[in-house]
């Protein structure tokens, strides 16, 4: 029956999809909405009721990748990290990885604690409390830090910013572990892809040392190692031996880092930040002094210099500012297995742990022999380096703590056992400890198993293409409206066609709420005609008829009078196209007329769609001219017209003739045998210069003209001006006294034309 050109629609979609550039794809509202939907779904999962919006920009000159303030996730799709990828799928995976990271901050970062920390530290205090250290050297460091902070507001700000950024290093490791273990699908997989990419670009310790132009820059190398350990559980040592002071500084902080990575209490993470600063103050203070000198020479400020330092670290993103507490860990799903991660942490524990007395004796005996062999130079791991654990160096970690100074430190591997959820950058088939502390890595690992990125991109591109085509369609409809001759009575009247290229969630929600009983009516009406259509196509004997040439003796026992039968030849159902034109004048607000008109459109549209009947739905009103509203077109592109229908409402005046001519002209171009135009109105025309006899004559003329072109008219009167409508449309007039019957009546009209 239908002549909906699906092939043409697909061709248009393919052409439009292929024309979408990377920039258009990544900054599109649809992609941002796609990520926002994911954020909303996961936020609700954790009882986080405040919405999270997503903004994706294209700023090639901006090195920043992403940040969040807990309300907005901001992503730069043109950051060098993303643009370096060779195709759109890989770039999409990187952007999705950035989004997953920032969503991790939204779900797991306690932004309020950061605000509290900033307030307390700027006032000269510590958050959550002043470090209590058993070791004298560390207690002296605490005193020295406080003296440094008292030297001026710049120093106070520098310490606050430094602490914030160091906390972000730990926080990044904490939230990424959560995301990888809790969301192994699209979020975890693409975050893992991002991590792999950053890991590959991460410099070795040797390379960072080579970039130290000043002795005071050692802290930068130490910090990079800490970040690498937090995110990946590995350090790229390069050619640097484990005894290097920078590596040993990291080893001495492993217990603090591990506790910060695994503890769900944000206060503990801040405690560990403070302790890391205290333990490494001999490196941090000279570096702060160097930054201060450089900032003065460059006319800047120390805080900005520190911001630039941390922005330059591989793999960091900014968590921004916010005021929301992290979700409760009790509401989170159970963590996945972290066996490989645990092994890596054990490897670093082995590397960092000093040899036992038995080992010392053996080494003493073997020193001379080792000195004679080339392997003696191999007292360093491979470039991909040691794993990750909570080890100590020199056995001196029990010298510092918070609270009870006599508390003994936990054994290194106990931290690993407690965490259980750390997921590594790379899964390996085997992790071992060859001679000299090397770690074997499986560089052939291909990801976590999510392979639907291409399908995701395809679906997004289709949506974008559909929206772009709908925007073009609006332009085309307006062009058509301008090229129609409306007659002298409409001369100089502005014609505007309105069509929504994108739909908000409100229309979808209203449709989902209102449609169930309406669709039930549609399905009943469909069933009532389905058998008739089948009989017409098959031909042969038809029984159960109220009238006919023959009495069917088998039907005589029936009590409903359907006792006749007839023989008929096979017959194709005549092709039918329908246009529904709704009056949207202000008076349609009376007595729920607009509501019943909307319900009629929903039922009629579903009825026609289900039976394959091309259908068009328009509304008309006046707004400094004639305003036409396209709710459904014959060839739907995005298949969302059923939602657009929910926008039907009472608006302004009604200049019926111009609207009727536009719709009739589109219907007259259809190839179907029967072309039915249904008008629903509650009154006679009423617009400036268009009313009374002149308007009625215009409408009768349009009816006569388009009837000669094969258009069948039905004018359904639902208001108080029924006499006027009957006078205008004559035999096309239909009285709808009971608005409740409007949807069924209009659909039955269509059924009648199907039977012809």
Characterize the structure shown:
- The protein has 756 residues and is of the alpha/beta class.
- The protein folds into three domains: 303 residues, no CATH class; 260 residues, von Willebrand factor, type A domain (Rossmann fold), CATH 3.40.50.410; 32 residues, no CATH class.
- Helices cover 51% and strands 10% of the residues.
- The protein contains 27 helices and 15 strands.
- The strands form four sheets. A seven-stranded mixed β-sheet has the order 6-12-11-10-13-14-15, sandwiched between helices. The chain has a three-stranded mixed β-sheet with strand order 1-3-2. Strands 7-9-8 form a three-stranded antiparallel β-sheet, covered by helices on one side.
- Strand 11 and strand 12 form a beta hairpin.
- Helix 3 runs parallel beside helix 5, helix 13 runs parallel beside helix 19 and helix 15 crosses helix 16.
- The two termini are 13 Å apart.
- About 14% of the residues have low confidence.
Name its key features.
756 residues, Rossmann fold, 7-stranded mixed β-sheet, single chain, 3-stranded mixed β-sheet, 3 domains, alpha/beta, 27 helices
Furnish the topology, listing elements before pairings.
Layout: H1 6-18, H2 22-26, H3 29-45, E1 53-57, E2 66-68, E3 72-76, H4 80-83, H5 88-108, H6 111-122, E4 132-133, H7 136-149, H8 153-182, H9 186-201, H10 205-210, H11 218-232, H12 245-252, H13 254-262, H14 266-279, H15 281-297, H16 302-311, H17 339-352, H18 357-371, E5 400-401, H19 412-419, H20 453-482, E6 495-498, H21 505-538, E7 540-545, E8 550-551, E9 564-568, E10 576-583, H22 593-611, E11 615-622, E12 626-632, H23 641-644, H24 656-668, E13 674-681, H25 692-707, E14 711-717, H26 722-729, E15 733-735, H27 742-755
Parallel strand pairs: 1-3, 6-12, 10-11, 10-13, 13-14, 14-15
Antiparallel strand pairs: 2-3, 4-5, 7-9, 8-9, 11-12
Helix pairs in contact: 1-20, 3-5, 5-8, 5-9, 6-8, 8-9, 8-11, 8-13, 8-14, 8-16, 11-12, 13-14, 13-19, 15-16, 17-19, 21-22, 21-27, 22-27, 24-25
């Amino acid at each position: 029956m239908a002549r909906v050109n699906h092939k043409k629609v697909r061709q248009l979609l393919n052409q439009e999809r292929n024309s979408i550039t990377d920039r258009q794809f990544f900054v599109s509202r649809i992609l941002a909405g796609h990520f926002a939907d994911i954020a909303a779904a996961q936020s609700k999962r954790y009882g986080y009721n405040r919405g999270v919006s997503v903004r994706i920009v294209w700023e090639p000159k901006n090195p920043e990748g992403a940040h969040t303030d807990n309300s907005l996730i901001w992503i730069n799709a043109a950051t060098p990290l993303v643009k370096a990828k060779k195709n759109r799928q890989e770039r999409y995976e990187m952007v999705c990885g950035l989004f997953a990271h920032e969503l991790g901050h939204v779900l797991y970062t306690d932004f309020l604690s950061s605000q509290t920390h900033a307030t307390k530290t700027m006032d000269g205090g510590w958050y959550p409390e002043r470090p209590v250290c058993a070791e004298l050297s560390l207690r002296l460091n605490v005193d020295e830090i406080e003296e440094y902070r008292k030297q001026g507001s710049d120093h106070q700000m520098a310490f606050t910013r430094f602490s914030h950024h160091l906390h972000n290093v730990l926080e990044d490791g904490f939230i990424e572990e959560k995301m990888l273990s809790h969301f192994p699908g699209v979020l975890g997989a693409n975050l893992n892809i991002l991590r792999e990419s950053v890991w590959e670009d991460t410099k070795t310790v040797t390379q960072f040392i080579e970039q130290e132009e000043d002795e005071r820059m050692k802290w930068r190398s130490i910090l990079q190692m800490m970040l690498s350990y937090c995110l990946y559980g590995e350090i790229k040592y390069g050619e640097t031996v484990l005894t290097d002071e920078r590596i040993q500084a990291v080893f001495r902080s492993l217990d603090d880092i591990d506790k910060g990575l695994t503890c769900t209490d944000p206060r503990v993470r801040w405690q560990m930040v403070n302790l890391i600063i205290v333990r490494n103050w001999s490196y941090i203070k000279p570096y702060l002094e160097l930054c201060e000198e450089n900032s003065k020479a460059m006319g800047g400020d120390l805080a900005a210099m520190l911001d630039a330092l941390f922005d330059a670290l591989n793999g960091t993103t900014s968590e921004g500012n916010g005021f929301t507490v992290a979700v409760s860990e009790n509401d989170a799903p159970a963590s996945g297995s972290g066996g490989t991660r645990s092994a890596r942490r054990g490897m670093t524990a082995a590397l960092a742990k000093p040899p036992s007395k038995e080992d010392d004796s053996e080494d003493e005996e073997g020193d001379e022999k080792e000195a004679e062999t080339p392997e003696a130079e191999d007292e360093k791991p491979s470039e991909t380096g040691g794993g990750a654990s909570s080890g100590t160096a020199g056995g001196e970690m029990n010298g510092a703590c918070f609270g009870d100074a006599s508390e003994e430190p936990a054994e290194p591997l106990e931290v690993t056992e407690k965490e259980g959820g750390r997921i590594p950058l790379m899964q390996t088939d085997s992790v071992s400890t060859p001679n000299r502390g090397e770690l074997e890595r499986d560089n052939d690992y291909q990801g976590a198993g999510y392979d639907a990125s291409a399908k995701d991109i395809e679906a997004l591109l289709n949506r974008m293409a559909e929206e772009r085509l709908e925007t073009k369609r609006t332009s085309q409809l307006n062009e058509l409206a301008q090229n129609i001759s409306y007659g002298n009575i409409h001369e100089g009247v502005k014609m505007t066609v309105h069509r929504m290229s994108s739909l908000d969630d409100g229309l979808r929600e209203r449709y989902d709420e209102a449609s169930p009983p309406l669709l039930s009516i549609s399905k009943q009406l469909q069933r009532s005609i389905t058998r008739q259509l089948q009989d017409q196509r098959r031909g042969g004997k038809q029984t159960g008829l109220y009238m006919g040439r023959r009495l069917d003796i088998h039907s005589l026992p029936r009590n409903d009078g359907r006792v006749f039968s007839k023989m008929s030849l096979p017959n194709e159902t005549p092709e039918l196209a329908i246009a529904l034109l709704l009056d949207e004048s202000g008076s349609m607000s009376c007595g729920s007329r607009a509501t019943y008109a909307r319900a009629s459109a929903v039922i009629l549209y579903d009825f026609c769609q289900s039976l394959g009947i091309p259908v068009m739905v328009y509304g008309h009103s006046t707004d400094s001219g004639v305003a036409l509203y396209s709710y459904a077109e014959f060839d739907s592109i995005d298949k969302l017209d059923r939602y657009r229908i929910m926008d039907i409402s009472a608006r302004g005046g009604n200049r019926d003739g111009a609207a009727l001519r536009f719709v009739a002209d589109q219907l007259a171009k259809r190839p179907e045998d029967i072309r039915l135009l249904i008008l629903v109105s509650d009154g006679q025309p009423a617009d400036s210069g268009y009313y009374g006899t002149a308007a009625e004559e215009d409408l009768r003329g349009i009816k006569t003209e388009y009837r000669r072109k094969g258009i069948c008219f039905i004018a359904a009167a639902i208001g108080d001006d029924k006499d006027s409508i009957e006078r205008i449309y004559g035999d096309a007039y239909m009285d709808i006294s009971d608005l409740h019957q409007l949807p069924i009546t209009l659909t039955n009209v269509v059924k009648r034309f199907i039977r012809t």
